[in-house]
Amino acid sequence: MRPHHCTALAAAVLALAACSAEPEPEPELTATADQVADFVARVLESESGEPTQVDCGDDEHIVVESGLEIACTVVDPATGAELDATATLEIIGRSEGWRARVEMPEEPGTASPTDREGGSG
């Protein structure tokens, strides 16, 4: 009878250990400033039909969080004027990636933003 008692005790210990184990955290979703700039450029190019130059800095490790704002500079392809833009990131899902809403003034010096949205992938 002793072997059964030890087996039952070992099974109970394993069951308790399994209950107290914490799930592994999901890996963080990351991007680079160049990836954000490329994304913003694609969104703007899809609207204007013209290649657009965008600079969102040089950060090589951005931890993507919904609501995270990235400041970018957009060069107007028609005039060469530099415009401030904000890319607000949003996580779609860990496997789907992220998307951004792009806000920028209609004209240089205009405070009213234009919302543009697209997805990564």
TrEMBL record:
Segments for region (Disordered): 98-121
Name used for this protein in its record: DUF4333 domain-containing protein
Organism this protein belongs to: Glycomyces algeriensis
